[in-house]
Amino acid sequence: MTGTQALQSVQFVTVKGKRLAVINAEDWEALIEWLETVEDVLAAQQAFGHLKAAGGDREKAGWKEWDEAEQELA
Questions:
Q1: What is the pTM of this model?
Q2: Are 3 and 31 in contact (CB under 8 A)?
Q3: Would 63 disulfide with which of 15, 20, 58, 70, CB 3.0-4.6 Å?
């Protein structure tokens, strides 16, 4: 299921004068996964934009060597 499909599956109810959106848990999880993918794509586009602006020089673009990044995560 795509994010758009998950959004289209929303049903609306009114409870005590408030309009609420209702979505089943599977559609919600699909929506979250879709949003996370969109964020990942945007981050990659930004990183490659920095790399292009740095003339392909990974160090100038702020990219780290794998070993350095791995040590920071450990």
A1: 0.69
A2: yes
A3: 58
Query: Could you give the angle at the alpha carbon of 70 between the alpha carbons of 33 and 42, nearest 5°?
Result: 35
Question: CA torsion, points 37, 39, 56, 60, in degrees to nearest 10?
Answer: -140
Taking the chain, what is the end-to-end CA distance rounded to the nearest angstrom?
Answer: 35
Q: Cα separation of 20 and 49, whole Å?
A: 40
- How big is the CA angle at 62 (ends 61 and 65), to the nearest 5 degrees? 115
Maximum CA extent, the chain: 59
Q: Retrieve residue 30's tokens.
A: 């699909």
Contacts of residue 19, defined as CB under 8 A and 6 or more positions apart, other chains included, come to 12, 13
